[in-house]
Design brief:
- It is a single chain.
- By secondary structure, this protein is α+β, with helices and mostly antiparallel strands.
- The protein has 4 domains: 69 residues; 71 residues, ATP-grasp fold, A domain (Dna Ligase, domain 1); 127 residues, ATP-grasp fold, B domain (D-amino Acid Aminotransferase, Chain A, domain 1), CATH 3.30.470; 85 residues, ATP-grasp fold, B domain (D-amino Acid Aminotransferase, Chain A, domain 1, 2-Layer Sandwich).
- Strands 3-6-4-5 form a 4-stranded antiparallel β-sheet, with helices on both faces. Strands 8-7-10-11 form a 4-stranded antiparallel β-sheet.
Length: 389
């Protein structure tokens, strides 16, 4: 099937793998016009967003072509944490206590939620700027730190000036991958996150599939994600949801109208023996594959950035690659580039993939390989203007 790639990058390499055009996602009206012009007269079967930055744009293009897609209003809910919480509350979904605050006037005294709380930007992704606070001092520090992050993020208007504060939800966290067809949610797989994510920052590390959840909790988790999709008004397309299993039941943290991000989609291929891209394109055309009860164990470690500095080299890579059951290791940040941990950072050092006969063996292989890697850094030097002598 021929593919037309629409890229936001002035240095896109899409011409190497498919025909494509370049547009500016920061100017959605112009981007929409350019895309509509480029596809005029072409027989388009589906329109697919690959990340959050183009979900709403893809929705408009699909509607223009008369193709099934989520409405722009539903797509917006997947990108705005405050609006999504309102929609979930109105629909009776299980949500934490939350409060929308204006950064400029926020104080600990005006906080109406008991500690611990989680403070979040309204529109940043990948846990960037998400901070837990357990008391007034930590809350005030979180506000100041997130304000600085937003100042350099390019956010403007309401999403720049406001934050969402939620009650902290204790419990194991899971990622749910699926597809909505004609308003009906269909599961692809559930990813376990075996490492506790308790804060103060919430960097994801290990993903493993198939899940170890028992059938009762798995059913509850899937049912809540399905209800949340309905609350958002999602009608057609991939879904990547993040949720926690609290004492009160499953609680949705985030829901995106796209597939799992980064290289983690390879876990689908390892586990279900079919590429995620194939499954998604089939789904966009109305063909979905049911969750595979015989799926094989597979896992990934999103290699965390733990220290600030300039990466000099990665040691132990050959030894780590020789770890039993490790399929591949990808290091995406090259020597000479700066490393920035969460909550300011928005990327990983790379990925370790493993596939073993069982869940525990897969997790052990990932941990063993990671223990053999050493990331050598040097301090980041800053030039200072000392003025005239």
């Amino acid at each position: 099937m021929p593919i037309l790639v629409v890229s936001n990058s002035a240095h896109s390499l899409v011409s190497e793998v498919a025909s494509g055009i370049t547009v500016d996602f920061s100017r959605p009206e112009l981007a929409y016009s350019d895309i509509v012009t480029a596809i005029a007269g072409k027989n388009i079967a589906c329109v697919l967003a690959t990340d959050d930055s183009c979900v709403a744009l893809c929705s408009r293009v699909a509607r223009h072509l008369g193709l099934p897609q989520n409405s722009p209003a539903a797509a917006l809910l997947t990108q705005r944490k405050d609006l999504s919480r309102e929609a979930l509350t109105d629909a009776g979904c299980n949500t934490p206590s939350y409060q929308l605050i204006e950064i400029a006037s926020a104080t600990a005294a005006s906080l109406a939620i008991d500690y611990p709380v989680v403070v979040k930007p309204l529109a940043l992704a990948a846990s960037r700027g998400v901070i837990r606070a357990d008391n007034d001092a930590e809350y005030q520090a979180a506000l100041k730190r997130i304000d600085t992050i937003l100042a350099s993020s390019g956010q403007q208007g309401h999403v720049r000036d406001h934050l969402l504060v939620e009650s902290y939800i204790d419990g194991a966290e899971y990622a749910v991958e699926g597809f909505v067809v004609d308003g009906e949610f269909r599961l692809l797989t559930i990813f376990d996150k075996p490492e506790p994510l308790t804060g103060p920052y919430f960097e994801e590390t290990y993903y493993l599939t198939p899940s170890c959840l028992d059938e009762a909790r798995k059913t509850a988790l899937i049912g809540e994600v399905e209800r949340c999709c309905g609350a958002y008004g999602l009608e057609h397309g991939p879904v990547h949801a993040e949720a926690r299993l609290a004492d009160s039941g499953p609680v949705l943290l985030e829901l995106a109208a796209r597939t799992i991000g980064g290289q983690c989609g390879q876990l689908i291929e390892f586990s279900m023996r079919q590429k995620l891209e194939e499954l998604v394109i089939q789904g966009m055309c109305g063909i979905t594959v049911p969750a595979d009860a015989e799926a094989e164990s597979a896992g990934v470690l999103m290699i965390p950035i733990t220290d600030t500095g300039i990466l000099k080299r990665v040691e132990g890579l050959t030894e780590a690659l020789q770890t039993e059951y490790v399929r591949d290791i990808e290091v995406h940040i090259k020597p000479g580039y700066e490393l920035t941990p969460l909550p300011e950072g928005a990327s990983y050092l790379g990925f370790i993939f493993a596939q073993a006969p069982g869940y525990e063996q897969t997790l052990a292989a990932l941990k063993s390989a990671y223990s053999k890697l050493r990331f050598v850094t040097q301090p980041r030097w800053e030039l200072q203007n000392l003025g005239d002598d």
